[in-house]
Every structure is written in structure tokens, then in C-alpha cells.
Design a protein that fits this description.
Elements: H1 3-65, H2 69-83, H3 86-113, H4 115-123, H5 129-154, H6 158-183, H7 188-207, H8 219-258, H9 260-277, H10 279-294, H11 299-326, H12 328-335, H13 344-350, H14 353-370, H15 373-426, H16 432-453, H17 457-480
Length: 484
């Protein structure tokens, strides 16, 4: 295969995976939009804030107790599957499934144990102790779902994985909405449980249609092999815990400083930026990590794959964030209520940070592909600590808009730091033209924002149309260009 054909195939692979899981994410988001809109109407900002506080707590404990098995196991499972060794693959599937049951139950026990403390610190009273007690089962469901997804992804059944997301989201919506409607705020905890339970049932039902031959394995051997799988996962676990801990601490601080409604506004803006715009990262990650792991020992190929990923991410995100900016008021009206227009300043700045996040995200996978868990942990802790401090400073001085600016600056610094680490440690080299492209797209977005904020709507729409056409043409040219 010629160099040009290989590059073309890289672009095609990225776009194909993004298209498959992007479509899946769009459906998932539509379900989320319906739920978010109705919850905002039925429960108001206070209800949205309570859901955010519960979810942050659950995610914090889950990230601590699941040991990263769901993510770290993909690499070993994938190698065994591609080798054609059915016995080895079956052994690893058995190991992963036993470990996720253990880590899921561990999370549930931790939640049960600390329910009184969590209620007092998060809400300032004991009224939510039983809420946390009942939510302990969601940690088990979430962990089991993650483990099954790892098996599906490693066995290259990406379409099955996509169907799991679509059907899981549909049934989760179907079960949770009546609970919100009939029970109001009292229905929040049952709705969260129904959501995680339905996704788990769908994932297991579809995922286990592929027969894996049964194996006999002692618990000692299960522990030994699982410990090897979890070696990198533990670093990822600590990193994920630190991230969710900082998120939890910030929303708890914000709840004390600005009230539950302010937490609801922040949570709404965070969801818009991270979940809706960030779907591009979710879609790409399904094939990017295994692909990068396969070439991680070759510096030239490693640099080339990271460069292609950065380039494609920017080409896809540049028009997305421009469209998101000029239609943000309409989006807020559709998803929430007019009261949520208070988040406009926050999301205007935070959405630009997604460009810098795309660069940082693409490079950070080098550390995982290399198995550099300790370096990955250090860089993540430094980045999360910086973002937390900047969040506090930003909100103290400029409110929610300051949080958006802090998000942007934090990823700008994070992008610079992670690239320097990978460049010096692993010889990663990204061409200067990628940094130029990032500067150009950021500048174009800034001009869109200037025009839009000064009510020059015709100019903002025209510039956005140009960005969409230009990036679309560039992406098409790279996918369909002739071999070099």
C-alpha cells in the first residue's frame, strides 16, 4: 500500500467510526434532550441541580472503585481476539467478568457505608441519606455495563456496541420519564436507578449473543490475570477519581456559594458543552485507542496517526462549535427554559476550549498506548488541579462566564504541557501546520463570536457557512484524494 493510500485509509477509518458512533450519540442525545427539557419544566433548576449533585457523587465513587477494568482490559482482550486464540480470549472474558462483579459490589458497599457523610457534605443535612443508599445499586449496574462493553469493543462488534447505546438510551428514557412526572423531585433517585438498570440489561442481552466457550479457572488464577490487566487501569482509576473528585468539590462549593439553582445552571451548561459537543470524542475513541496501540513502538507511525487524529478532530469540531455558538439561544430554549439563558456566557467560552481539548485528547492517548500509567496519572492530576483552581478564581470574579473562560485556558495549558511531555519522552512530533490550523480555527471562531455578540447576525452566519464549507471540502479532499 502506498503512503498516500495509507493516509487516506486513516482518514476514512476515523470518519467511518465517527459517523457510526456519532449517529449513535445523536440518538442518545435526542433522548437526553427530551428528558432534560421535561425535567427542567417539571422540576426546575433545583431539580436539575439535585440530579447533578447525585450523579457527580455516584461517578466519583464509581471511578474510584471500578479500577479502570473496563478501559484497560480492551487492549488485552483485543490482542487475544485478533490472534485467533479462542481459549485465551475466553479466559480473559471470564477474568474481566469476574473482576467487574467484584468492583461493582465494592462500589455499592462504599456508597452504602458513606451515605450519611455524603448527604451531609453534599446537601448540608441528612435528608438525602436514603437517596444515596438506594443509589448504591447503580454503581453495580454501571460497572457491569462497562465490562460488557469492553468485551464487545475488543471483539470488533462496533455495530452491536452502537445498538446497545441506542436501545439502552431508549428504554432508559421510557422508564425514567414517568417517575419524574408522577413523583417530581421524589422520583429523581428511582429514575437514576431505572436509567442505569435498563442500559445494563440491554448491553448484557445483546453483548452475550456471541458465544464464548466456557473455561474452568480458579479464583487464584482469576486474581493473578486480573491484577495484570488492572495494572494500567489503577493509574486510570486514580486519575478518573481525581477528576470526578474535583468536579464534586466544585459543585458542592458552588452549591454553598451560589445555591442549588446555580448548580443547575452550571450543570446544564456543562452538559451542553461536554455531552453534546463532546460526542465527537466519544465517537472517535472507539477505534482510535486500539489503532494507536498497534503502532506505538514506531515513532514515525505514532506521530502520523496522532497528527491525522488531531487534524480530523479539528476539521469536524470547527464547524460544530461555530454552529453551536450562533444557535445557542435556540438550543437553550429547546432543551431548557428561558431562565437557562444565564448560561450563555459560560458555554460561549467553554465551547472554544473544545478545540484545545481535541488536541490534548488526541495526544494523551499516546501515554495509554505506551502503557505509561505513572506519567499519565501525573499529567492528569496537574491538569485537573489547574482547572479546579481556575474554576474557583473564574467564578469568584466573573460568575459562570468566568468558569467558561477558565475551561478554555485550562485546556490551552493542558494541550501545551501534554504535548511537551510526549515530545520529550516518546519522540512524538506533530507538524507546525497543525498548530497553525488550531490558531486559524480559533481565530475564525473568535470573529464569529464578535459578530454574533454585537448583533451582526448576517456576518456571523456568513462566516459560519464559510467555515462549514471549507472544513467539509478539506475533509472530503483528504478522504478521496488520489494515492501519492
Amino acid at each position: 500500500m502506498t503512503g498516500g493510500e495509507e493516509k487516506k485509509n486513516i482518514y476514512r477509518t476515523i470518519v467511518k467510526a465517527t459517523g457510526l458512533f456519532g449517529g449513535t450519540q445523536v440518538f442518545t442525545i435526542l433522548c437526553s434532550i427530551i428528558k432534560t427539557k421535561l425535567v427542567a419544566i417539571w422540576l426546575g433548576a433545583e431539580g436539575v441541580g439535585i440530579i447533578g449533585l447525585y450523579n457527580n457523587t455516584v461517578e466519583m465513587i464509581s471511578s474510584l472503585t471500578r479500577l479502570g477494568i473496563g478501559t484497560s482490559s480492551v487492549r488485552d482482550l483485543s490482542k487475544a481476539f485478533k490472534s485467533g486464540d479462542e481459549s485465551r480470549f475466553a479466559e480473559l472474558v471470564s477474568v474481566v467478568r469476574r473482576w467487574i462483579w467484584f468492583t461493582g459490589l465494592l462500589g455499592a458497599v462504599v456508597m452504602l457505608t458513606f451515605a450519611p457523610l455524603l448527604s451531609r457534605y453534599t446537601f448540608g443535612d441528612d435528608t438525602h441519606i436514603w437517596g444515596y443508599v438506594f443509589l448504591s445499586c447503580t454503581l453495580l449496574f454501571t460497572t457491569l455495563t462497562e465490562g460488557e462493553r469492553a468485551v464487545i469493543q475488543a471483539s470488533e462488534r462496533l455495530r452491536v456496541l452502537a445498538r446497545c447505546s441506542v436501545l439502552g438510551s431508549f428504554f432508559a428514557l421510557l422508564l425514567s420519564l414517568p417517575l419524574f412526572y408522577f413523583f417530581g423531585i421524589s422520583g429523581i433517585v428511582p429514575a437514576i436507578i431505572a436509567h442505569t438498570f435498563s442500559i445494563w440489561v440491554v448491553t448484557v442481552s445483546l453483548g452475550r449473543k456471541m458465544k464464548v466457550k466456557p473455561v474452568k479457572m480458579s479464583w487464584t488464577e482469576t486474581y493473578r490475570q486480573g491484577k495484570n490487566i488492572a495494572s494500567l487501569g489503577i493509574y486510570m482509576t486514580v486519575s478518573g477519581f481525581v477528576t470526578t473528585l474535583y468536579s464534586y468539590l466544585f459543585v458542592a462549593w458552588l452549591n454553598d456559594r451560589g445555591g442549588t439553582a446555580e448548580v443547575g445552571f452550571f450543570q446544564a451548561g456543562y452538559t451542553l458543552v461536554m455531552q453534546y459537543v463532546g460526542l465527537v470524542f466519544t465517537a472517535m475513541s472507539m477505534e482510535y485507542y486500539p489503532r494507536l496501540s498497534a503502532v506505538c513502538e514506531d515513532k514515525v507511525l505514532l506521530s502520523e496517526h496522532v497528527t491525522r487524529q488531531v487534524e480530523t478532530s479539528l476539521l469536524i469540531l470547527a464547524p460544530v462549535i461555530s454552529l453551536f455558538l450562533i444557535f445557542q439561544n435556540l438550543i437553550i430554549h429547546v432543551l431548557y427554559t428561558p431562565a437557562f439563558l444565564a448560561i450563555s456566557g459560560y458555554i460561549s467560552w467553554a465551547v472554544l476550549g473544545m478545540l484545545f481539548r481535541a488536541f490534548s485528547w488526541s495526544v494523551s492517548f499516546v501515554l495509554l498506548a505506551k502503557g505509561a500509567g505513572r506519567i499519565f496519572l501525573i499529567t492528569e492530576i496537574v491538569a485537573d488541579s489547574l482547572m479546579f483552581v481556575m474554576y474557583l478564581v473564574g467564578y469568584t470574579h466573573w460568575g459562570l462566564q468566568g468558569v467558561g473562560v477558565a475551561y478554555l485556558l485550562a485546556y490551552l495549558f493542558s494541550m501545551t504541557g501534554i504535548y511537551m511531555v510526549c515530545h520529550l519522552k516518546f519522540g512524538l512530533h506533530i507538524p507546525v501546520r497543525m498548530f497553525v490550523s488550531l490558531f486559524v480555527y480559533s481565530s475564525l471562531w473568535y470573529f464569529v463570536w464578535l459578530l454574533w455578540s454585537n448583533d451582526c447576525l448576517a456576518g456571523a452566519y456568513s462566516l459560519t457557512a464559510f467555515i462549514c464549507l471549507f472544513t467539509g471540502f478539506q475533509l472530503k479532499k483528504k478522504i478521496f484524494r488520489k494515492s501519492e
